[in-house]
Amino acid sequence: MRLRTSPGDYVFVPPFVPHREENPDPDEEAVVVIARSTQEAIVVNLPRLYALDPGAASD
Q1: Which tens digits make up the pLDDT trace of 15-31?
Q2: How far apart are CA 36 and CA 21, in angstroms?
Q3: Mapped to the 3 state alphabet, what secondary structure does the chain carry?
Q4: Can you tell me the distance from the alpha carbon of 5 to that of 11, in angstroms, rounded to the nearest whole number?
Q5: CA-to-CA distance for 48 and 3, rounded, in angstroms?
Q6: What's the CA dihedral at 13, 9, 6, 43 to 10 degrees?
Q7: N or C: less crowded end of the chain, CB within 10 Å?
Q8: Cα–Cα distance between 53 and 18 in angstroms, integer?
Q9: Is the pTM of this model over 0.70?
Q10: How far is C-alpha 3 from the geometric centre of its chain's CA atoms?
Q11: 19-23: Cβ within 8 A, 24+ apart
């Protein structure tokens, strides 16, 4: 699943859910604040994500 977010949006990712913290659109800057409940990130490497087409809906 991919989420398209806007300024002010809040996204909660439950613990141990595989995900990517990345901006898939290299042409548009993304500024994010990431808050974790632990001091160490739990890392799960996943394949690269690609930008959605402008008219595409979220999966």
Answers
A1: 777 777 778 788 988 88
A2: 12
A3: CCCCCCCCCCCCCCCCCCCCCCCCCCCCCCCCCCCCCCCCCCCCCCCCCCCCCCCCCCC
A4: 8
A5: 15
A6: -20
A7: N
A8: 23
A9: no
A10: 7
A11: 19/44, 19/46, 20/46, 20/48, 20/49, 22/49
Please compute Rg for the chain using Cα positions: 13
pLDDT in tens, 47-58: 665 555 666 555
- Kindly list the domain boundaries of the chain, sorted by start residue: 1-47
Exposure string for 1-23, b = 16+ CB within 10 A, e = fewer: eeeeeeeeeeeeeeeeeeeeeee
Cα–Cα distance, 48 to 40 (Å, whole number)? 22
- What one-letter code names the amino acid at 46? L
Contact 52, 2 (CB under 8 A): yes
